[in-house]
Design brief:
about 0% strand; 2 strands; mainly alpha; binds fe (ii) ion
Length: about 475
Amino acid sequence: MARDGQGLEVGSADAGAIEALDFLREEWLVFGKRFQTFMEAADREERCALLPVMAANLALSMNSVEGRALGARHLKHAKSMEKDASTRERAWIAATTAWLAGDTDKSLAIHEKMVAEWPRDLLAGKLGQLHAFNLGDAKALLRIGERLLEANRENHFAWGMCAFGLEECHRLDEAESHARHAIEMERKDPWAHHALAHCLEARGRLVEGVAFLGSMADTWEDCNSFMYTHNWWHLALFLIDLDRADEALAMFDQRVWGVWKEFSEDQINAISLLARLELRGADVGGRWTDVASYVKDRLHDHFVPFLDLQYLYALARAGEGSAVTEMLASLEDRAESAKPFERETWADCTVPAAHGLAAHAKGDHVEAVRLLGQAMPHLGTIGGSIAQRSLFGAIHLDALMRSGWNDAALKILLADERERPDIPATKRGLADIYRRLGRTEQAMAADYQAQQLVRRYTNVKGAAA
Ligand SMILES: [Fe+2]
């Protein structure tokens, strides 16, 4: 039986199929964009089921109605070759079938078994991590990363994939060293850059974050739009926390929004960045209107709740009232028809969070506090990374502060300060709350710390210029 570059047996594969699969694995793991030739080869393939099943996974990862239809077509093609397929190929077909049916808990379970049995199958791990990510299952994300690394210690991608799992499990020191090891092995590993960006973000190491990502950005030019816009999005987050919102807004225009405006991942990077800029007082002009025009046809998508919530916020901020109403109703329907494994996510988190975000977007902060407060304890289940989900925490905090929930806001700000001690905006928030509570000395101290940090960051920027 033929074997691919990872030494894995591939049933019924000729040399051309092996070459296509090897190319796909590397291109996927480096977040490239040269997939068209592979998709065409998968269409033509008549013997090896693995080609169309991989094409189906690529299509499904688009998070779109068109992607789902394309995925279904490729999966059907793969199934027509199933009788000659190996056990591993059948597992791929089963996992993809479950994904198409919306049984992502089952997909994740199959991918975990695949990684246990064939840990050299890096794409089985990659897709398993995608499902874990979308299900908010950080432990599974890490388990898969660790198993891959055990069997692929010579492979920098495996180090980067494990690093991200460690980071999402709050094991930041190990995550950082794994990511740095990956980059030492191969500088052009955007997922390892990304894992390290998360580590720096989690500790508020802002100056380092800007310097590090800036030093790697030249390697992202061949990346697909998700990885390209997402790594620039991470750089913009550091700039916002450094009080350099003007530069972050310019980055929105130049790097984050405009590569592939129809793609879900580009859209949520844009939405999250605009929302964060506004929370820090920036005027984003007519940008919501442009972004919302691209998410208007996603009212009934419901692929991942984490995506839906951001689409909804964009529509609400753009003043698309009827679209918001329609999407809220659709989300309620989705929650009612949720499968047991996803009921908490949709009913306890997504629906109240969606109503809370809509309330915040129109300035009803009391209602936003009530509804987002219901959702927050379940937030981890909606998918996305810690850094991405922190947007919802920031909106909740904004609503608390604007509606006078001083004690609750203080508790959150103090927790933020413990985790990320050098953020000027956090200090200013604390000063604001202390003033309201009549704690004048603490207010003055927090204001002074904010000014000192701004001065320090201005000096660093001046020295770097
Ligand atoms: Fe990220």
